[in-house]
């Protein structure tokens, strides 16, 4: 094991560059999947005939597939039908598709947990259905959804490492490139990379726990 | 139109991958149940250092990517002379990773059993271990089965990381078939169908168990 060689300034910069890509991909994916997750969750909750069922089938199919397969498919299979994305966007599209499906279930669960009496009261005091959803149901549901949503974000951040299959230059990819140079670097590099992921994710989970605690 | 000939011509390869995916998932489930139960007991046993050890395992493993853990078994340990074939390395990685999640499921199941039960059993003369074995665990099991089912679904999906290290699973054979046929789209649609054959019935089963448990409360 060669800790000094593994942690040379050039390697550290290289790892940091990878980590920035990881964080960038995760951040963009989080924003889009949050928006789509809420839209799909609300559509499924409102039970619009036909549309809700179609979304239910799509969401259940995506949720039951491995993310790795979706990433692979987006990057290698879609070009066959004329949709060519570069690595960066392929990873983001795949993550957004998968995580939106996961988040929509959290949103739907949160909406369902709001007492039906609230909706009836709001409706009978003259609010329209859309107004009731926007002003009464969503704000309460979102607050309850914060902890599961944050843990889904942690999953998303970890899952960016799956993009190693399409050689996206993220943290795991850069770690493996360094590991390829000298077998003595492998263990020190894995320790450092694990700590990098851990610090970010553990901080996120502490934030989530704090928010959960505040609600009580 | 999908080229179904790809599926029929390579049926044996698809089946081999399917069986290996199932095998890795079941082996990892058994392994992670054993480790998960031990960690859960560590976390709730009335011994401080064990609590810390259990918490450290769960928090650390849950916050790092599965790919990294699998690479530790596939690239990291060989660097210090411990070698595994890709399938074993992948399955061990899956086991270590899933155990952290299963430990949390079991811990919350045990904590959901009312405290009075433990006190009553202890004051009627049972030891701590006897109380766990005869009073707490039987009640906790009923509550943890649906979330354990969810973990198994995740396990089947996560087993696809074996494909990253050529672990002979569905993803790996998909890769092989697509490099033989020069077709990607159709090949992976069939791979997806094989995964759904496993995960959709499991999801429906877990949903059924969850509803039944909710009613029995």
TrEMBL record, chain A:
Q: Can you tell me where the transmembrane regions are?
A: 20-42, 54-76, 183-204
Tell me any Pfam family this protein matches. Answer: BPD_transp_1
Entry-linked InterPro entries = AA_ABC_transptr_permease_3TM, ArtM/GltK/GlnP/TcyL/YhdX-like, MetI-like, MetI-like_sf
Protein name per Swiss-Prot or TrEMBL: Amino acid ABC transporter membrane protein 2, PAAT family
Primary subcellular site in the record, as a coarse category: membrane
Please report the organism this UniProt entry assigns to the protein.
Parageobacillus thermantarcticus
UniProt entry keywords in alphabetical sequence: Amino-acid transport, Cell membrane, Membrane, Transmembrane, Transmembrane helix, Transport
A Gene Ontology molecular-function term? transmembrane transporter activity
What membrane topology is given?
Multi-pass membrane protein
Q: Does the keyword Transmembrane helix apply?
A: yes
ABC transmembrane type-1 domain segment(s): 19-208
Q: Where in the cell is it found?
A: Cell membrane
What family does the Swiss-Prot or TrEMBL record give for this protein?
A: Belongs to the binding-protein-dependent transport system permease family.
GO cellular component term of the entry, any: ATP-binding cassette (ABC) transporter complex
TrEMBL record, chain B:
Q: Which InterPro entries match?
A: AA_ABC_transptr_permease_3TM, ArtM/GltK/GlnP/TcyL/YhdX-like, MetI-like, MetI-like_sf
Q: List the Pfam families.
A: BPD_transp_1
Please classify the protein's predominant subcellular localization into one broad category. membrane
The record's subcellular location field reads: Cell membrane
Q: Gene Ontology terms, cellular component aspect?
A: ATP-binding cassette (ABC) transporter complex
State the UniProt keywords alphabetically: Amino-acid transport, Cell membrane, Membrane, Transmembrane, Transmembrane helix, Transport
Topology in membrane: Multi-pass membrane protein
> Superkingdom of the source?
Bacteria
| Example GO BP | amino acid transport
Transmembrane domains' residue ranges: 20-42, 63-82, 94-113, 152-173, 185-209
Q: Name one GO molecular function term.
A: transmembrane transporter activity
CDD domains (alphabetical):
TM_PBP2
Occurrences of domain ABC transmembrane type-1 (ranges): 18-206
**Among its keywords, does the record have Transport?**
yes
**Which family is annotated?**
Belongs to the binding-protein-dependent transport system permease family.
Q: What is this protein called?
A: Amino acid ABC transporter membrane protein 1, PAAT family
